[in-house]
Amino acid sequence: MTSALQRARSTLRARFPAGAPDPSAGAPVTGRERAALKVFMDAWEQGDAAELTRLLREDARWAMPPAPLWFDGRAAIATLLALFPPRWQGREFRMAPVGANRQPAAAAYLRRRGEAVFRLSGIHVLRVSDGQIAEITTFSAELCAGFRLPPTLTD
């Protein structure tokens, strides 16, 4: 696990511009949170809806404030992921671990088909319970200014 975290930090240093604040500051402290976040980020980048669903507790919840939009339960989230998977319409993502209020979180950078760069699209904050994701709260890029993340990444 430690080597995976070291590789992730090395990747972040390579992808983020020099002088940018360390996006992993305040990252999760427990091994189970780190493990769940890593699997979540890998599955999101690969567009693996089945793996994302497997990570969820049966009573998981996904909210997307400020939109009055939430999904209760693994089955509802699985339906959402089946209808709109991460790679829907040729989208690609790069994920970067961040911390949000001492919870594991991932900054999502989106590249649409035909674009050259990945643009910050939001942050997924996870609540992990017993190694499974109990809750995902997704904030749009407009709500993430306090993280001081770079607006774009190159491949």
Automatic annotation (TrEMBL):
It holds the Pfam family SnoaL_2. InterPro entries: NTF2-like_dom_sf, SnoaL-like. Residues 40-136 form the SnoaL-like domain. This is Nuclear transport factor 2 family protein. It comes from Sorangium atrum. The lineage of its organism: Bacteria, Pseudomonadati, Myxococcota, Polyangia, Polyangiales.
